[in-house]
Each structure stands twice: as structure tokens, then as C-alpha cells.
Sequence to fold (394 residues):
Amino acid sequence: MSITDEFTKGLWQTIPPFRLVLGLCPTLAVTTSGINGMGMGLATTFVLVFSNLFVSLLRRFIPSQVRIASFIVIIASFVVIVELVMQAYFYPLFKILGIFIPLIVVNCIILGRAEAFASKQNPLASLADGLGIGLGFTISLFVLGCIRELLGSGTLLEIPVMWSSFEPFTFMLKPPGAFVALGILLATMNLISQVQARKGGGR
Amino acid sequence: MSDFILLMISAILVNNILLIRFLGNCPFLGVSRSMDTATGMGMAVIFVLTLAGTITWLVHTYILVPLGLEYLRTIAFILVIATLVQFVEMVVQKTAPALYEALGIFLPLITTNCAVFGVAIININEGYDLITSIFFSFASACGFALALVLMAGLRQRFALVSIPKPFEGTAIGLVTAGLIALAFSGFIGLV
Fold:
């Protein structure tokens, strides 16, 4: 596969968390608005890109018996960087995302990509893969955040967009709403894929 | 004592770690397809989470704080948890083969279970003392096991009914989880 393919596959074919059902905790917890979703997505992308790059650069030096522990240390180092940078420059967002910033370290997407992709491929392909999957994750979180924000508080990116008599559907901002919204979004994506397959494959 | 009972009720029902705090959702959807795996995972998490909660608290209070290394918390905790899981796996394998049979495959998965790591951090952020941390870790893990078993019970029934095609698999699982979470919202205000 070419570098472009590695990059674009993360945007639809294997877009997390829909196609790769990994990293659900931050997806559900922080997507109460579009901005929060995007912030979380970008923080994860940063860690994913650099952990992929470093795992790939070091892949010949890491003994396979201790590879998981080594990957976790690499990932954790970048998470600490993100944590400190966000605390210093994006304090309000840091407060909102709270515990889910350090939790990036146990986000299965990152360890999954390190194990399944970066430990076997060259640094350039790993970089493209990390960027693609990371942006796919960011887009998913942003879309889910926008849907929940629109229905739950009647705003889009903190600007009121609904008509004046609109009753905010606060259920969408509560934990149950997160599960239901993600479930319906996933079902919609499955439906689109099925329709595409029927058109293309002529089943 | 009544404080501890309230803390347990709060951690199990009101702020359920899976449904309200959103920690540990990957295994929640991954291993809830059958009752046996759900109980196995639930037991493994209760065991490891209680231990991990205790040990990370000790590491934080007696190693990181005196040395002024709190910013290394994330790295230190994940290493402690990863080592602990490996260690528990070896000990259980040697001393209790029957238990190992039951928990075996779930133990390695727990390293990346964000419930374990999340509870360790909550213990520190909330400033709990040692006893409270142990109770809170245990109660959170019980809440995890409860939600997982409830979910598995419901999902087993999906095998018998026809589900609309786009909803098959994870999508219906998520909607079901939403309904369980809605039921748990009824406990808000209990404590």
C-alpha cells in the first residue's frame, strides 16, 4: 500500500471508533460538545503519531518479549507531554477533559496501532497510519460531539442555532444519551456501507 | 462505618464506573456476549482493581510525593499496573490452577482496561486515604462486574431475536448499554 492509502484508510475504511471498536471510553465521556470532542481527538492524535513514529524507529531494538511494556512506556511519555502542555496552555479544556487526558495512555487504539502496525512497518508508513487513524478518531469525536451538542443544548460550537422555542433534549448530554447516540451513528454507518456494497457488488 | 456504606452504594449504583463514569467500556462491549466470559472478566477485575488501587496509592504517597515526582504519575501508575497484572497472573497460575483456568485469558487484557487506571487516578484526585481508597476500588470493581453481568444477560437474548441488519453487533450493544445506563440514572439522588 502507498503512503496515501495508509493515510486515507483511517478516514473511512478503518475509522475508529466505528470500524475499529476501540477507544470507546473517551468517545463516550467527553463528547458533550463539538469542541470538547475535537480537543480530545487532537490530543490523542498527537500521542498516536509520535508513539507510532518512535515504536517504528525502535522496532529493531525492542526485544519481542518485553515489547508491550516498552510500547506502554513510549506512549506514557508522550501522554505526560500532552498533559503538561495542556495544563499550561489550554487550562479550561484540560479541566473539562480531566481524567481522560492521562487515560489516553490506556486508549486501546494507540497500543493496538503500535502492536499491529508500527512495530512491523517503516517510520514513514507508521507516521501516515498514525495521522490517518488519529484524524479519523478526531472527526468521529467531533461529529458525535456536534450531534450531542445540537440536540442536548441547541447550540453548535457554542453558537445557538436552533429556533427560539426549541426545548433542549438534555438526555443527549447525559451518559445514557452518549451510548444511544453512538449506537445510532454506528448503525447509520453500517447502513451506508451496506447500501454501497449492494450497489458496488451487485449482491 | 456508615460513610463506607454510602461510598460503596455511590460507587456501585450512583456513579457506576462503566455506565456513568465511562471507564472500561472496551471490555464492556467486547466480552459481554456470553455469561461465562462476563463473570470471569468481572471476577478478574474485582481482584486486580482492588490490589492496583491499593498499590498505586502506596506508590503515590510514599514514593512519588516525597521525591516531588507527581508529574510522573501517569508513567509510574501504568508500569505498576502492568507489572502487577503480570505478577498476579504468575502467582495465580502457580498457587490456584483452578482460578487460573477461570480468569486466565482475562488477566492480560486488564492492563489496558481503563477502569483500573482510572480508579487509581480518581483515588489520588479525590484525596482519599488508604482505607477509603481500598473500599472505593473494591466497590467500583463490583459496580463494573454488576453492569457487565447485567449486559451479558441481556445480550444472550439477542441470539434468539432478529435485529435490523445495520444494528447487528456493536450498535445494538451500545443502544442496550444506553438503556441500562438510563435505568441506573434512576439511582441519582440516592446518596
